[in-house]
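ok trying this again, last paste got cut off
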Amino acid sequence: MTKKVILYTLQTFSTTGGIQKMTRTMAHSLNVLSQRCGWDFQLWSAYDSNEDLMLQYLPAENFVGFGGSRTSFVLKTILLRKRPDIVIISHVNLAIIGLLIKLIKPRSKVWLIAHGIEVWRPLSATKKMFLKRCDKVVCVSNFTKGQMMSRHKLCEQACQVLNNAIDPFMRLPENFAKPAQLLERYRLTAETPVIFTLTRLASTEQYKGHDQVIKVLCNLKQRYPGIRYILAGQYDHQEELRIHRLISEAKVDNDVILTGFISEEEITAHFLLADLFVLPSKKEGFGIVFIEALACGLPVVCGNADGSIDAIRNGKLGTAVNADNPAELENAICNYLDIPLTVERRQDLRQACLAEFNDNDYIDTLEKMLADD
C-alpha cells in the first residue's frame, strides 16, 4: 500500500548538531523506504534552503527548503492537497504545524520525535495540546520515554523508543593510527595520553561535565605524565572565560587544549587521536557523539543520569559514572588509560557498536513502525 510521508524539520543540513544528525539519518532512511516500498516521501525544512541539501541523503525532488520563510512554511502546510498518511514532526518547537495538520487533515497520523531537554521541561499550552493529539511520540532513548511519561503523563503505548544510529555517511577509519597532522598541530607524540571531549560549550548549558574533567586533570597528570585533555566544540565568550578560569584554578594551564569548533571532516581524526572519550553530561537525550566515538574504536565514559545509558547499552559498550562524583570519574578514566588501546581493542569496539547502532537495523525498525500505522 502506498503511503505519503512528510518529515518536518527546523534545520537539517545548514547546521550541525545531534538533532540535525539524527534528522539526516531519518530522512535518508525514509528515502530508502520510499524507494523500497513505493511510498511518497518528502522532507520539509523551515530554515534550510534548497541549496543546503546534501544529495547523499535524498534526491532534490524529495526536499523542500523554506529558507526561514515561516509564512510560506505554514501556508504550504495549510494548502496541502493530498492528505499525508504520516507526518513526522522532528522537534516540539514545530508543534503548531502538527496541530494544523490534525485540524485540516484529521485522518493523518502525526508523530513527534522527542530528543532531550527540549521536552524535559514544562511546555507551553500549544505544545501540551499537541502532545495530547499526537498519535505517536518517538523517543530517542528509554530515559526520554520515561520523562515523557512522568512529566507529561503520556501513556506507555503512545511512546516508542527508536535509538539513534550511526550516520551511514560518516567517514569511519580505515586504520587506527594517530593522525600525523593532528599530532603536529597540537604538538603531541603518538605516546601522549589523550582524553577527548566534543560538545557544544554554551554558558546556558553548564551540564556537559567538561568542568568536572578539568577538575580531576590535576590528579591525572601526576599518574600519566604528559597527559592532554582536548576540549573541542564551539563556545560563546562567557563560557570561554569560565573554562579558562577553571583551567587556571585547577593548575592545568599547559594540559588542556581548547580547540573551538572542529569541522565534521575532522571529527573522525580527533577520535583516532584520543585514547578515551569523556563526556560526563547530565542532560543528554541520547548522545550521538558517544556512538560516533565507539564506531571509531574509541572507549567512552559518560554520565549515568540521562539518555547516555542507551548509547553505551547499559554498560556493554562503555562506562557510566555519577557526573557529580569526581573520584568516580577519575577512577573510570584511569581504568581505561591503564590498559593500552590497541588496534584489536579499537576493532572490537567498532564492531560491537555497529552491531547495535547500524542504519540497516534502524531502517527496518522504522519500516515496522510505519507499517503498524
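PB: full thing came through this time. The chain has a mean pLDDT of 95.
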